[in-house]
Design goal:
Blueprint: H1 6-29, H2 41-47, H3 52-64, H4 76-85, H5 91-112, H6 117-163, H7 168-178, H8 183-195, H9 200-211, H10 214-229, H11 233-282, H12 296-318
Helix pairs in contact: 1-5, 1-6, 3-8, 4-6, 5-6, 6-7, 6-11, 7-8, 8-9, 9-10, 10-11, 11-12
Length: 322
């Protein structure tokens, strides 16, 4: 029994799709679009000579375009993650990208494998759509994690700005210039909207709903209540910063506690596959006597289903709501 090369080719093509999409994204929108960059994208666009109004319009379009495309069939599965990741590609461009990488995957499978045409078509579509979803989901998780980590520092910076006498709109502008992306661009949009007459509390509420983040909802509610009833906003935000930081520490603690169980589930699901690979490498003919048995293929499907259920069950058990 020889180790088939097709699964390796499928995996390499899937990885190639992700690398290709990331490369196209960086080429199309510049290095500042990357979450690894320390460059504030909004300020970079302003430094290039683009007008403030044009920058605001472009950034608002990028951050809202995916939610307005939820009515597109199947795209609704991707829209929420693309919205949180603030993918600059339009929904149409993402769909075209899916089609393009699916065609490239089909070409790669045609060259590298001898699978039937129907199987190649299904696999190429799965690789194209799955690769795009994996890429968008990874960016969304990373961006949301960075925003959660940056938010307490941003609120504390607003508190210091208010205590030295700056108005709240100026405090938001200072945050948009002093901290890094992705939160800097988000607050920069709020600062620009406030400069053009939009209520700051309403803008904060809109950002909180768009990002679906509870701590931002606390911030928007605190600002809105202070605007309506008055009070010392600096003291309110100082208390809020402590609450957000405490919640963040609690989330990290829960994540650390459940990490062992999560990795145990992954290890228990991967271990049989690793054992299978080692057995086939050491003894390629190990399963030759049973491979033609009528129960062999159904047993493989049962094992695959059980391993998948193991991952799902362990994920449910360790998904603790705080």
């Amino acid at each position: 029994m020889q180790i088939p090369a097709e699964p390796i080719i499928y995996g390499l093509i899937f990885i190639g799709v992700i690398v290709l999409v990331e490369g196209v994204y960086l080429v199309a929108f510049g290095k500042s679009i990357s979450l690894n960059s320390r460059v504030n994208r909004r300020l970079e666009m302003l430094d290039k000579g683009t007008g403030r109004e044009q920058v605001l319009e472009q950034l608002r379009k990028e951050m809202r375009q995916h939610m307005s495309a939820r009515s597109i069939p199947l795209y609704s599965l991707l829209a929420d993650r693309a919205q949180k990741a603030a993918i600059a590609f339009t929904p149409r461009q993402l769909i075209m990208l899916m089609v393009g990488v699916s065609c490239l995957a089909f070409l790669g499978l045609t060259i590298g494998t001898e699978a039937p045409v129907a199987l190649r078509l299904i696999a190429s579509v799965g690789i194209g759509t799955g690769g795009i979803y994996f890429w968008v989901n990874k960016k969304a998780k990373k961006r949301m994690s960075m925003i959660e980590e940056q938010l307490p520092d941003a609120v504390e910076l607003m508190v210091r700005s208010l205590r030295v006498g700056h108005p709240f709109s100026s405090a938001i502008t200072i945050v948009s210039k002093e901290i890094e992306d992705p939160l800097a661009t988000e607050f920069g949009i709020i600062a620009d909207e406030a400069a053009y007459g939009r209520d700051v509390g309403e803008a904060l509420k809109d950002m909180a709903e768009r990002l679906d983040m509870q701590d931002l909802r606390f911030l928007s509610v605190a600002v809105t209540i202070q605007q309506q009833s008055g009070g010392n906003l600096a003291e309110i935000l100082a208390g809020l910063a402590k609450v957000i930081r405490a919640r963040f520490r609690l989330f990290r603690r829960v994540k650390a506690i459940t990490a062992e169980a999560q990795w145990s589930g992954k290890f228990l699901s991967a271990f049989p596959l690793l054992c299978l690979a080692v057995i086939l490498v050491n003894d390629p003919g190990y399963y030759d006597e049973v491979i033609d048995h009528p129960y062999f293929i159904p047993a493989c499907f049962v094992v695959g289903i059980l391993l998948t259920l193991n991952l799902i069950v362990m994920r449910v058990l360790t998904n603790i709501k705080v």
